[in-house]
Fold Tagaturonate/fructuronate epimerase.
Amino acid sequence: MNDAVYALGRSSRNGTLQLIVRGNSTGFHGEQQGDALICPLDAENARTLQERLPWLRPQPLGNRLSFGFGDRIGLATPGHVDALRSADPTGRIAPIFAQQSVRENQRLNRTPQEVMTAAVWSLFAENWRLPWGADADHVKEPEHLAPYVAAGYTFYTIDPSDHVDNAAHTDDLAVLRSKCEALPWDILETTYLSLCENYCGRTIVAEKTTLHFDKETLLRALAKYGRALAHTVRIAAALRTALGGTSFDLEMSVDETDTPTSAHEHFFIANELLRRNIPLVSLAPRFVGKFQKGVDYMGNLAEFEAELIRHVAVMRHFHCYKLSVHTGSDKFSIYPILARCAGENVHIKTAGTSYLEALRVAALRAPDLFRQMLETGRTCYEKDKKTYFLDCRPERVPPAATLDDADLPNLLDQFDARQLLHVTFGSILTTHGAALRNLLATYPNDYRSALRDHFARHIQPFVQA
């Protein structure tokens, strides 16, 4: 350990957690007290500690069964660790502890480094020594990459959903041909005739799934996803340049689109990315049914399983990536299906559910603060909901002033209230974040135990499969 001993302790002056370094303290900054350097838990000291303790550095996780723990507040990692240690004691699941999307950071005025720093200090405090990752989530443009690269992220989720042509799902053939002619063929590095030769008349047998491509199937897949593929290639090229020779995990996500991704389209996307030597580790298709924020899966479970089996067959045909499930929190009805059908080849991505458990602590411990947050959510819902697919009916969420204290925690189990609070996280945390963090610091065990129990329910189906 570079001739040094590291520990955490609380300041006798204000109770703030600090890093105590005894011995070689080169690279750290702080106040010398006797034989120890007392250091603030900031980004600079976190980076120095990462240089000295390799297990504090995120790393690529490859095709392992994995789980993404988004933390919008910066205090959830201890509870995430508790959930893994209790529900997955053998360490089958590879966790991603630092995960935040570009959109989330913009709404919270956070930086990728701040997200990383919060995770690193928590992992040091919890003595986490197993591999873990850091996800730059929903990267939509090349210019989004730089701060994530600088902070040492290892998993990059490219989201080209703005370039998916949803109308191609129902366009007539003449419109599809016109759209395909206008694609950026120079970036795709192929031609329509070449794609016809490669796909049309081809039958792919993958496990018990058979896919046959004709011209219409190809045209629809190409018109729908061609520009998204080109945009993914552009961002992937910029990422390779930014990272130099550093290894990384790459995911392509098209989950935030209007129409489901068919098995044919899945095959086309994966095949074209691999043809362009894009190092795909996971792919997030738009599954059948509704994957909405903060609530369980909405749809026919038999239909979901039937379509999932086809997606799994396509994935296993290529045998080099896993399926990624976005908006994956609270989808308790489909976890057993995912575990049974996809096995180890799945990544579950969660974000806002950890924030909702923090609100639950507020509802129990600080009713007045929770009422203020609820009213902020009610006020800001129409503005904040615009980037989400939701069935929430805000009129079903009662005004906070009409509820008794004992009724407040129940809102965290009510469909409309969960969705309203979930998508207004930016407005709520911008206005009340400091007060909420102070509350969670006062009752840390409440938050830890809530997260442990909540995420154990998420993890257990995959460990028990």
